[in-house]
Design goal:
The protein is mainly alpha-helical. 45% of the residues lie in helices and 6% in strands. It has one domain: Ferritin, core subunit, four-helix bundle (Ferritin), CATH 1.20.1260. The termini are far apart.
Length: 309
């Protein structure tokens, strides 16, 4: 056995840094060789194998999709009215609308209309070769109706950057205004359906349902604002003076607030523009919840590859 110590050159070449450098280069070289071994000449190798890109189903919009969507909207509205009625909100007095009275019986009639409307749209969807849509419209429920319920009944808890928002200062006012908003949106949605479906029978039925919703929107508007028949016309012209609103025909109307009063006929023709809902208690800046309810668009349609949750 040779008992001589190795010279300084040998020790330097085998220190920890040298071993790590050699080991690292060996590992990298092995990976590159493995990657290049799976490529053809003239191509750039890659490390690892990726999965196949998923292929999404085509989002085809046809009569069946549109009818399923309308059925879901009508179901969502009926369910929203059920929630309002079960909570007894419309039977309570409103500080903002002291002359409103109990509208529960009227809203129950509205609810029955939307239940029948959903069944009608589903029947037409089946005739068009589509599966019926037996639940609410997911987009309408999750992005609009449920947040409104939460803001009105529970408020918003405080966070690290925002103060707590209390529940609504007048739930009855908010819910009767929500009814007007949903009726207006239902009428607009039925009208918007007419030029995009291919069947005259669907157009006719859609307008029948839409006319009923438009009349219901007008009726609840007059319950909220008696005398508010036509926006900006004749006796229904609204004149604001300080914190009060008056009409020439009806005398004192509900006090003016950040929440606008609805009119039975907001325009000469049926509107396709968004219907705005404002309600709930204000935040630290006095700003209330505000949503624009629009007619169905591509992100709210009930495509064949969607199913009820």
């Amino acid at each position: 056995m040779n008992n001589e110590l190795p010279n300084d050159t040998t020790v330097a070449s085998l220190d920890r840094r040298g071993l790590l450098r050699i080991g690292g280069l060996t590992a990298v070289s092995a990976v590159v060789v493995a990657a290049c071994g799976k490529t053809e000449a003239g191509t750039v190798g890659r490390v690892g194998e990726g999965g196949q890109t998923p292929v999404l189903a085509d989002a085809i919009v046809n009569d069946g999709v549109l009818l399923r969507t309308m059925a879901g909207i009508e179901t969502s509205i009926a369910a929203a009215y059920g929630h309002i009625l079960d909570g007894g909100f419309l039977s309570k007095a409103s500080a903002t609308l002291p002359d409103l009275g109990d509208q529960s019986e009227l809203i129950a009639i509205f609810q029955a209309h939307h239940v029948v409307a959903a069944e009608t749209f589903n029947a037409l969807a089946v005739e068009a070769g589509a599966e019926p849509w037996l639940c609410g419209n997911t987009r309408l429920d999750d992005a609009y109706i449920t947040p409104i319920f939460e803001r009105i009944e529970q408020g918003i808890p405080a966070t690290d950057t925002t103060l707590k928002i209390e529940p609504s200062d007048d739930p009855t006012r908010d819910y009767v205004n929500l009814v007007h908003t949903l009726e207006s949106m239902a009428a607009s949605s039925c009208q918007a359906l007419v030029p995009v479906v291919t069947s005259a029978a669907i157009r006719f039925t859609s307008m029948q349902i839409g006319v009923r919703s438009a009349r219901q929107a007008a009726l609840i508007a007059l319950r909220i604002f008696p005398g508010g028949y036509v926006a900006g016309v004749g006796e229904s012209v609204v004149a604001e003076t300080d914190a009060t609103t008056t009409t020439a025909a009806e005398g004192a109307a509900p006090a003016a607030t950040a929440i606008p009063l609805p009119f039975a006929l907001p325009a000469r023709f049926g509107l396709l523009s968004p219907t705005t809902f404002i309600g709930g208690a204000g935040d630290e800046n006095g700003v209330r919840l505000k949503f624009n309810f629009e007619t169905p668009s591509l992100n709210s349609l009930a495509y064949p590859f969607y199913s009820c949750p």
